[in-house]
Amino acid sequence: MKQKLTAYMEDHREDLIEDICRLVRIRSDKGEAKPGAPFGEGPAKALAEAMELAKEAGFSVTNYDNYVMAVDFGPQPAELDILAHLDVVPVSDSWTVTQPFEPLVKDGRIYGRGTADDKGPAVTALYAMKAIKDLGIPLKKGVRLILGTDEECGSADLEYYYAREKEAPMSFSPDAEFPVINLEKGGLRGAFSASFPEEKTLPRIVSIDAGLKLNIVPDKATARVEGLSAGKVQAFFEKASAETGATFTVSEENGLTRIDAKGVGAHASKPYEGCNALTALIYLLLELPLAESEGLRRLKTVDRFFPHGDTAGNALGVAMEDELSGATTISFDIFHYDPVSLRGEFDCRACILANNENFRDVVRDRLAEGGVTLEPRDMFEPHYVPADSPLVQKLLQSYEKFTGEKGYCVSIGGGSYVHHLKNGVVFGCAKLDVDNRMHGDDEFVEIDQLVMSAAIFAQAIIDLCGE
User: Fold this and answer.
1) Among 19, 79, 81, 87, the one annotated catalytic
2) 12 has pLDDT over 80
3) CB 3.0-4.6 Å disulfide test: which of 21, 46, 116, 464 passes with 86?
4) Quick one: average pLDDT of 279-300?
5) pLDDT above 90 (res 323)
6) How far apart are the first and last CA of the chain?
7) Is 155 in the same domain as 195?
8) Containing H/E element for 54?
9) How far apart are CA 242 and CA 416, in angstroms?
10) What pLDDT band is residue 98 in, cutting at 50, 70 and 90?
11) Are 219 and 363 part of one and the same domain?
12) What is the CATH number of the domain that holds 264?
């Protein structure tokens, strides 16, 4: 079977590449909801194109009001659901290899937004099903590929789908790395705010803005100050860059001095892989000779508890870890400051030891010390499927058969499509030691890895549904 599947995927390598490129060419970050497009026109267009791909491959397709689509093979209802998504995160203007939605095949890779997260893996799973169909391999149980359009912004697509359909007894999502991710941390998507009287004594900060999505470490941040010239501000850049790793530029704008910070984006589950432009900018601003004010004191509170480089919660007093799930991470991703208020949001991925009492309440009380209010929200639960479960064991066996490497289970901070499913894990399709620049500039996927992943997925479907 291994030889058959490997040969099939090699024969269809170019088709796989082109079908991935067809989807990558469609910009599908979330947009304004419209009739027939619940998450905007881009995700709806990507869904329509994916439906065409599935039909061309000879499968029956069901469209759930442009929230998700389902591709079915074998006896239904399915015993195995495979969940992938077609929406993507926003892009910056700092790509260097190609433009985000102009896929480029180069040096054994496909570059473009969504190649790794998650259009490449979605098409790879479709090809796994196609291989089983084309090779005439019988299944005793059915498989369903579910392709959604809102994974990056809350998974309202799956809420819609599972309000209408039952989850399969087994599920996996090819939306991260091999071998098997069987534990996803819980956490807190926290928001805090403060109000204060406006004080016009100069120099002062007029505004700070950073962040587009809560699950992305911001790579850009902007501030406007009044009462300091561009030259005076620029004198502080060298030290701030040395301390933070970010770069800064300054310009004059409508009588104000504008400061732009540039860092490195990353997924909020791994904030230590990026350079947070927001926290770097706050560091720089607090180095400037600003007039004391209530607003500035509140900003110092924010900096005190979310200092640049602290992605573990040390300053907040909530750093903790355990052997099973690893360390807690905190990513400060969205912030707005003006002369009378501030508001920020952070994304915490907490180890399984964390709870409302020892984490959320501690954060609330620490912020309150400096006049900042944490909005009342409960932490969300972790997700865990035991390593010795039949689903995990068979997936590991499929992985080992094609890679020749020993399979094992991994814990992550990211919340995947299967986080709320009873018996769902993440399976593929990148290598753990390869940085695909997911959510960052110049995202890519390795073609050889996709081809092998398709064979692994096919073997897994056969092992799970062929008995």
Assistant:
1) 87
2) yes
3) 46
4) 98
5) no
6) 15
7) no
8) helix 41-56
9) 36
10) very high
11) yes
12) 3.30.70.360
Query: Is the predicted pLDDT of residue 316 greater than 80, yes or no?
Result: yes
Residue 119 reports pLDDT greater than 90: yes
- State whether 277 and 388 are in the same domain: no
Which residue, chain included where needed, has tokens 């020993």? 406
Q: Which of 29, 49, 150, 151 is catalytic?
A: 151
**CB-based burial of residue 357 (10 Å sphere; 0-12 exposed, 13-18 middle, 19+ buried)?**
exposed
Same domain, yes or no: 340 and 445: no
Same-domain check for residues 178 and 193: no
Cis ω before 179 (30° cut-off from 0): yes
CA–CA separation, 346 and 268 (whole Å)? 9
Give per-residue pLDDT as tens, 392-401: 999 999 999 9
pLDDT digits (tens, 9 = 90+) for 45-87: 999 999 999 999 999 999 999 999 999 999 999 999 999 999 9
* Residue 162 token pair: 């599972």
Active site residue 151: yes
- C-alpha span between 177 and 396 (Å, rounded): 13
Q: Are 26 and 44 in contact (CB under 8 A)?
A: no
The CATH number given to whatever domain includes residue 415 is 3.40.630.10
Domains of the chain: total: 2
Domain boundary among 354, 374, 394: 374
Range of the domain at 438: 2-185+382-465
The answer on 112 and 63 residing in a single domain is: yes
Tell me the whole-structure pTM to 2 decimals.
0.76
Q: Which of the four pLDDT bands, split at 50, 70 and 90, describes residue 215?
A: confident
| 322 or 458: which leads in pLDDT | 458
